[in-house]
Amino acid sequence: MEVLLENLSPFSLAFLPLFVAMEPIGVLPIYFSMTRKMEAHEKRVVLFYSMLTATAITVAFLAAGRLLFLVLGITISDFQVAGGLILLSIAISDIVVAARAIPEVKHPAGVGIVPIGTPLIAGPAALTTLLMLSDLYGFTVTFAALVVNLFIVWFAFQSSDRIINAIGEKGALGISKVISLLLAAIAVMMIRRGIQSFLM
């Protein structure tokens, strides 16, 4: 495993944890359930605002993360342990819960912002991972990985009807559980690295 990680590029090492944290396949059934009764133009509005919201929040958090650390006096080790615990709790919740609750849609125009844009796309797991990756691989590499992941989310949502018809909602849920397990492993790694930094 160590040899494999060493042979991956910094972009790949930043892309993979962020993909796991944003979990487009896991979010897809929720998006599909909330928009399947909408007209085509309503779906386009929801998709636009969801991606706009997620992009604005993630980019702002990525850009201001280091400044936030300085203001609050937080060290990278502090954030590794705290962020790892948060990611671990999210992953465990996703694994043990049979299915996520689907909010009732009353105002389709606002659904793209909340809950799809945030917290489903730009949620605690994604924001925590962004700050960690920025420290490990730098802003440019992390930003590039973020852009690619946002594009994947957009493509998945744009093709939600075809994807769900192909794999089924239960299939998407199964893939989501595997992704959550990977997220739990990444969370444990972050906690371990944070504790090691404290001991050095």
Number of distinct helices: 9
Structurally, how many domains make up the residues? 1
| Shape label | globular
From the alpha carbons, calculate the radius of gyration and give it in angstroms.
17 Å
**Contiguous runs where pLDDT drops below 50 for at least 5 residues:** 1-6
Structural features, described:
This protein has 200 residues and is an all-alpha fold. The chain has one domain. 86% of the residues lie in helices and 0% in strands. The protein has helices at 2-7, 10-22, 24-35, 40-72, 76-96, 108-121, 124-137, 139-158, 160-199. The longest helix is centred in the C-terminal third of the chain and has 40 residues, at 160-199. The protein starts with a helix and ends with a helix. 35% of the residues are buried.
List descriptors.
single chain; 200 residues; mainly alpha; 0% strand; globular; disordered N terminus
Topology of this structure?
Elements: H1 2-7, H2 10-22, H3 24-35, H4 40-72, H5 76-96, H6 108-121, H7 124-137, H8 139-158, H9 160-199
Q: Would you kindly provide a brief summary of this structure?
A:
The protein is an all-alpha fold and 200 residues long.
